[in-house]
Design a protein that fits this description.
This protein is mainly β. The longest helix is centred in the N-terminal third of the chain and has 23 residues, at 8-30. The chain has helices at 8-30, 180-185, 366-372, 403-406, and strands at 59-63, 68-71, 78-82, 85-93, 101-103, 109-112, 121-129, 135-144, 149-151, 153-156, 162-163, 169-173, 187-192, 198-202, 206-210, 220-226, 231-233, 236-238, 241-248, 252-257, 262-267, 270-276, 289-292, 295-303, 314-323, 330-334, 352-355, 379-383. The protein starts with 7 loop residues before the first helix and ends with a helix. The strands form 7 sheets. A 5-stranded mixed sheet has the order 22-21-20-28-23, with no helix packed on it. The protein has 3 domains: 59-144, Immunoglobulin-like (Sandwich), CATH 2.60.40; 150-248, Immunoglobulin-like; 252-406, L,D-transpeptidase catalytic domain-like, CATH 2.40.440.10. It has 4 helices and 28 strands. This is Lipoprotein.
Length: 408
Amino acid sequence: MNLQPIRGRVRTGLPALLLGAALLFTSACSGGGDSGGGAGDNAGGKGGGKTGTEASKAVVNVKPDDGSKEVATSGVLKISSTGGKLTTVTVADTKGNAVDGKMGADGASWEPARNLAAATEYKVHVVAKDEAGRESAKDTTFTTLTPTNTFVGHYAPEDGDTVGVGMPVSINFTRGITNTEAVEKAITVTAEPNVPVEGHWFGNDRLDFRPEKYWAAGTKVTVKIALDGVEGRPGVYGKQTRTVHFTIGRSQVSTVDASAHTMEVVRDGQVLKNLPITAGAPSTTTYNGQMVISEKYKVTRMNGATVGFGGEYDISDVPHAMRLSNSGTFVHGNYWASSSTFGSENVSHGCVGLKDARGAGDDDQPAAWFFNESLIGDVVVVKNSKDKQIAPDNGLNGWNMDWSEWIK
């Protein structure tokens, strides 16, 4: 039987088909040993390449847990990452007020720099990266406790005041403080031009701040009180946030020489006046030391019974009175003593007296002049009195404490 030959396209295609199969076989078998990388390297063979969809090895940890309520204002908020480092940490209240914090040296932990506010909702946003640069994020919300017992600090000077060079920042708390370190940390006092300012506690309810020496004239002082959420004593929390600005005016320091019966008034290094005075009598001497004017009254009542002198005096209209101590020391006008008393005798119950007119209506009188030329915070120094030095906490008189003691 004679067979007709197959068309050429079929005859010639068989060797090509066999060659293609051989090439396919060769290509499929050559990938494992080709250092140049064959098709198998990109097709999921042994040791196949990255797909870019692997999860980050960084795990973000946030305490307290999401949705927590009644969270303590300190010691609870902690943020960390395992398997990576923190790249973004944002903690803020619902008004957008951010909480400052400090990153750990390893970059894997973060804690707030200060306490949180009480009765406040906070939102937390954290991002961490692993060694491959892959990110992991976490968002949580929590609310701090609402305290039952609270305290605030009554401060001086007031916002916007211009005061003398001796004026400290003095804060009196409405509750006795046992956690003094936390409370002091929540209050910062800064000055421009810059000068170190340190705090000192008098008892457990008063904290004063001052520089080593009197403020320089013209200094701008800023006080930031961030007591909200500070646990001042067990179960008692601060509820106060304030920023106070005040200015130091010209420098005025007046020196009373109780023995010579004079007061020299010096402003910005120049003597303004020498005034005749009367100081404390021999049985009721005037304290020595540096005293700061803390209050001014054009006319006020002075009753000896309020400072331990019984009924020895009760004067309803003492003119031009300026307080120097909590215990009743004033520099004030005196209209009841004879003119010859001033500059020659000491007859008061411990105050510094200047000649004056009844009713405080005569600005030509020495007491009126001194009153009008004085600021809260001006310094009055008493020397050569036969009495002890005034206690640093008796009025705003911390200048009577050495700096080494103040900063202890």
